[in-house]
Amino acid sequence: MLGRKPDALRNRAPFHDWTLPLAVEQVQRGLRPAALLRATFPSMVQRRRAANVICGRIPGEPLMEPSNAPVPHSVLDTRGMPGTQAFAFWQDHIGSQYDLRTPREIPKAFNARVDFWHLESALLGTFQGPAQDWSRSRACIGRDGMDSFHLLVFRGGWSAPHGGGVPVGPGDILVCDMAQPLYMHGGDNELLTLVLPRHQLAPHLHVPDEHHLHLLRSADPLATLLKDHLSNLLGHLPNMSLEQARAAIPATVHLTAAALNGTIRDEQLGSVRMAMTERICRYIDACILDSGLSPESIARQFGMTRRNLGHLFEFSGGVAAYIRRKRLSLAHARLRRSARSGQSIEDIAQAHGFNHYRSFSLAYRKQFGTSPRETRAQALKGTVLSTDANGRLSPWAQWLKDLK
After folding, report:
1. Helices and strands, number each (H, E), in the chain
2. At 178, is the secondary structure helix, strand, or coil?
3. Separation of alpha carbons 390 and 33, rounded Å
4. Secondary structure in 3-state letters for 229-291
5. Which strand (E) or helix (H) includes residue 195?
6. Are 151 and 173 contacting, i.e. CB atoms less than 8 angstroms apart?
7. H or E stretch including 330?
8. Are 128 and 112 in contact (CB under 8 A)?
9. N or C: which end of the chain has fewer CB within 10 A?
10. Does the domain formed by 73-261 have CATH 2.60.120.10?
């Protein structure tokens, strides 16, 4: 009958469900990156058919009209501005996410450009900027509350941790967990950047808190696949609707997770330990506000000794430290949200498992670099951001803050 899908197409899995497993299979076969890409991606006919599937259309069926709302787009460009003015303008925007060190002598030209697209549950864009120190202290983390992963694809320039460490160069991918401290410096950088909120990516990662400053080298086949995917997606965004861009997010998340999981955990934890750790983390998340939650209760729940439980959480300083950080993060979010509700800081501390305010305050300051009262005061005052000459920040600066 006219308009009826062939059985093979009607039962076909979505595009990302069959291309990603195929990519992983080819990596396991040891193909070189060029051969990997040829083997992973289907023929031209299959690609056209898959593209139609993504957009909600099967060849031979009427075209379904997608939403024509464009993908929100924001650009900051300081080229052509005097150096002092350009640096101040740049600091107004990026200074809310990073602790920037003002250079002793600001150059006559401070050329920086940020170009971001907002895909609702992700940001994708490019960055070009001069040599500069980048850092996120615990105080900075406490101020903005950002809880996202930034994947930095280096197209040019270099970067390295302060105090030594492996430098990142062109073709490499660096993962930054914005909820953890960061101290970097580097030369002129050109980056392709993907921003994913934690709740979007973490469920697909093995031990998600361990991926801060995770480095994927340019020769890694899955890293190559991820870079090509992000570049292709970025190139098509100007001609895509927001609905179409949203449809590409699941494949992007899955491919990102595959690239990260493919080079971590196998050599550190066996599959059994990995699965058990994930089960325990889910249990802790579900019971995090239970006053009886402790290393002893968790060990009993899972039928293991405290010593074996401790081995599973060595990456986090032990299970007690893991629980404490989780509770402090929840208390931090509550302090910011409830600033005008009248709920006392002591009540919030007790609700999150801290019966003594002094111990809560000390642990809070150690994790966030500020006191609970200072956080409450900042939330009451509201975060004040400098603006441009028209009294506005470029939208991408606010997008970064809001993507949680």
Report:
1. 18, 10
2. coil
3. 48
4. HHHHHHHHHHHCEHHHHHHCHHHHHHHHHHHHHCCCCCCCCCHHHHHHHHHHHHHHHHCCCCC
5. strand 189-197
6. yes
7. helix 319-337
8. yes
9. N
10. yes
Strand order in the sheet with 113-118: 73-77, 113-118, 123-129, 189-197, 148-156, 173-177, 214-216
Intervals of CATH 2.60.120.10 along the chain: 73-261
Evaluate whether 100 touches 91 at the Cβ level (below 8 Å). yes
- How far is it, in rounded angstroms, from Cα 242 to Cα 119? 7
Residues of the chain with CATH 1.10.10.60: 271-369
Pick the CATH number of 271-369 from 2.60.120.760, 3.30.930.10, 3.40.50.300, 1.10.10.60: 1.10.10.60
Residue type, 327: R
190-219 pLDDT, tens per residue? 999 999 998 889 888 888 888 988 999 999
Q: What is the DSSP letter of 154?
A: E
Q: What is the rounded distance in angstroms from the CA atom of residue 364 to the CA atom of residue 370?
A: 7
Q: Which amino acid is at 88?
A: A
Q: Please state the φ and ψ torsions of residue 259, each to the nearest 5 degrees.
A: -65, -40
Q: What is the pTM assigned to this prediction?
A: 0.60
Task: Give every CB contact of residue 378 below 8 A, 6+ residues apart in sequence.
Answer: 143, 336, 370
Strands 113-118 and 73-77: antiparallel
Taking only the tens place, the pLDDT of each residue in 319-370 is 999 999 889 988 988 887 776 667 889 999 999 999 999 999 999 988 888 8
Q: Answer yes or no: are the C-beta atoms of 193 and 229 closer than 8 Å.
A: no
